[in-house]
Amino acid sequence: MTGSPRRTAWRKGFFEMAPSRSVIVNADDFGRSTGINRGVIEAHERGIVTSASLMVRSPGAREAADYARRRPRLDIGLHLDLGEWVFRDGSWNLAYEVVSTEDRNAIAAQVQRQLDLFRQICGRNPTHLDSHQHVHRDEPARQVVLAAARQLGVPLRYCASRIRYRGDFYGQTAEGAPLPEAITTESLLRLLSSLEPGVTEVGCHPGRGDDHGSSYGEERSQEVDVLCDPRVRAFLDSEGIALVSFDAGDELVY
User: Fold this and answer.
1) Which of these, 224, 131, 157, 232, lies nearest to 188 by C-alpha position?
2) What pTM did the predictor assign?
3) Quick one: CA torsion of 62, 63, 67, 72, rounded to 10 degrees?
């Protein structure tokens, strides 16, 4: 299913009237576990999260989708899951593999499978696409996922030119070492103050509990606390930075 002309026209209207700086705060890993679902929901209801990316293969996916059906203000995109890697003993090691990231045909089949499952449990198309650990940034996954985004008429992270992505609100280094100073209220305020004019997606990974089996653990709860800090909302209001969603976002210029 492709994007409708009416929706595209509405998006163009959004850009004509949009504030000089707008931010989509998107929670990755929605559906990975009940604990992560709790954190995403809390950060949406009490904090500044406007959007989430759903891992449809994970144990909490249907629970997350049920919530999204009841709360249409929360944008839901597809967080494509092709595998996961952990940094251990000086190198990245495969934790699990859904399909080989070298096999274009297998990737295409898996993308379609996860899109079909998303529609089945959510009752609609995703509002945006991205991927677990950003595997879609490399070929051959990039072209496969980009084709799917174009067919759907939705933004793909890093590829839709009118939406910038900021991933620096993250409590670990590129090698998985703790980086708690990156997920404080002060660091988030600095990030928000540095936003350029236009629409920016800020990624986050909120969660509660330890039922997710992820190497990104205690950091998730810290993120929830920061995303719900009243000082963050007050800062956005004082700076005139609008909280928006993907439905009001991109004109889809790739």
Assistant:
1) 232
2) 0.89
3) -20
